[in-house]
Design a protein that fits this description.
Layout lengths: L20 E2 L2 E2 L2 H4 L29 H12 L17 H14 L3 E5 L2 H12 L5 E6 L3 H10 L6 E6 L4 H18 L3 E7 L11 H10 L6 E4 L17 E5 L13 E5 L1 H14 L5 H11 L2 H20 L4 E5 L7 H10 L6 E6 L3 H10 L4 E2 L9 E3 L11 H6 L6 E5 L5 H13 L2
Parallel strand pairs: 4-5, 4-6, 6-7, 7-8, 12-13
Antiparallel strand pairs: 1-2, 3-9, 8-9, 10-11, 11-14, 13-14
Helix pairs in contact: 3-9, 4-5, 4-8, 6-7, 10-14, 12-14
Bound molecules: pyridoxal-5'-phosphate.
The site of pyridoxal-5'-phosphate has 14 residues, from helix 4.
């Protein structure tokens, strides 16, 4: 008998129960990331999950096949209790989804091939013809475009409100949305938030939105794009959001080497999205899911270091004579924004805007002079990135709207990585000399 012909009746072949507590102590997400949802016994003892490259799964019996399909098609509540076909789900994605749920304290999570796939499938799952979406502004440009241009083709309209809005202002917006829905013969189908907004870092008062939605007795989910602060620095489900949305491409993936997305929340809100994903596809692929599990093992370490680095860099930038101002959550100037921050956030993040004295020409000289920081869009990676939103990510936004959103020509967006902070300060020092 060779070493790996293990006797299947031996106790060492028995699957081990999932450990999430020791002596009543709940284990922290950073501990659970090393093994949660995966038992090496089921995969030849492989410490890390193998990558399961298969399009389909063999059923133990025809009756099992029938039972699995009853779950997939919704004929039986509770979803599939076995794997069927890789467009629906597969082992690497299931483990990833279990681990993503842990960070947000969610009952369930769904993975997608990009952040935008997650957002589009989520919205499509909830919007019917003539419905109204209420959303905060600004949104990630592609999210805003999906609502305003794509959903508009199906008679879906929207009402938006600025990120810093008060409870009274949000009440008024929801009232307007309800009137608009009545007029169109639809309903308010979703409240969609993004906080902090990009690139100004304006925060949405999630607790106030929850209170407004409850007071209006709206039966629709509050979803929030938590890409900029999650999963470490903001847990929106704790403030009353129903669904948390991520571009995993950013901090969670964290190495600028993959594109993926996810949503998480209670099963009740996840189920319609799962059904639509089963139909449309768009699930994350097994290789990317594996890479994300690798990334989740260090997400707390990376985000903590990036956050500490950003605090040091911003302290330096704030007192520099060529700097006009900073849009950094660690240095909020507005009392209302500070109050939201104190109630919602556990950290200031590492992505911020830097306002230089001057305009586009000064920003371009600064960006071209950087030696460590790379000139690229995206954020949340191990490396520091810098870009110019007015001429890059937000070029398609009309000039008037850009001004309204505070995206001026002298604004540089920076995402701080995990390099040595003094090296970064040296780089910014020499680049600012060219301004
Ligand atoms: C990048 C990003 C997205 C889109 O995610 P992709 O993974 O690029 O599809 C959505 N929202 C925010 C806030 C983002 O930064």
């Amino acid at each position: 008998m060779s070493d790996h012909d293990i006797d299947p009746t031996s106790p060492r072949m028995a699957p081990k129960p999932e450990v999430t507590k020791i002596d009543g102590r709940e284990l922290k997400p950073s501990t659970l990331m090393m093994g949660y949802g995966y038992d090496p016994v089921l995969s030849e003892g492989s410490l890390k999950p193998p990558i399961f490259l298969t399009s389909t799964f063999a059923f133990p019996s025809a009756a099992d096949g029938k039972r699995h399909f009853e779950g997939i098609t919704g004929k039986r509540p509770g979803g599939a209790d076995g794997l069927v076909y890789s467009r629906f789900n597969a082992p690497n994605q299931e483990i990833l989804e279990d681990r993503l749920s842990v960070w947000d304290g969610a009952e369930d999570a769904l993975s997608f091939s990009s952040g935008m796939t997650a957002i589009c499938v989520l919205m499509l799952a909830y919007a019917s013809q003539n419905d109204v979406i209420v959303h905060s502004g600004p949104l990630y440009a592609a999210s805003e475009g999906f609502v305003a241009k794509v959903l508009a083709k199906f008679g879906v309209t929207y009402v938006d409100f600025p990120a810093g809005a008060t409870r009274e202002e949000i009440d008024a917006v929801i009232e307007k949305a309800q009137a608009q829905a009545d007029e169109q013969g639809g309903k308010v189908c979703m409240v969609y938030l993004e906080s902090p907004g990009n690139p100004t870092n304006a925060l949405v008062d999630i607790e106030a939105v929850r209170a407004s939605v409850d007071a209006a007795q709206l039966d629709c989910p509050i979803a929030i794009d938590n890409t900029f602060l999650g999963p470490l620095w903001q847990r929106p489900l704790d403030q009353g959001a129903d669904i948390v949305v991520y571009s995993l491409t950013k901090y969670v993936g964290g190495h600028s080497d993959l594109v993926a997305g996810s949503i998480a929340g209670p099963k009740k809100w996840m189920e319609p999205v799962r059904m639509l994903r089963n139909t449309m596809g768009g699930i994350c692929d097994p290789n990317t899911a594996w890479m994300l599990m690798r990334s989740l093992e260090t997400v707390e370490l990376r985000m903590n270091r990036a956050g500490e680095n950003a605090a040091k860099v911003c302290e330096f930038l704030a007192q520099h004579p060529k700097v006009e101002g900073l849009g950094y959550l660690g240095m909020i100037k507005d009392a209302r924004q500070q109050d939201i921050y104190d109630r919602h956030c556990k950290g200031a993040g590492s992505t911020f805007s830097l306002l230089l004295k001057g305009g586009e020409a000064e920003c371009f000289r600064f960006l071209d002079a950087l030696k460590i920081a790379k000139l690229a869009v995206s954020l949340g990676g191990t490396e520091t990135l810098a870009s110019h939103p007015a001429s890059m990510t937000h070029l398609s936004v009309a000039e008037g709207r850009r001004a309204e959103l505070g995206i001026s020509d002298n604004l540089v967006r920076i995402s701080i990585g995990i390099e040595d902070p003094d090296d970064l300060i040296a780089d910014f020092t020499q680049a600012l000399e060219t301004v």
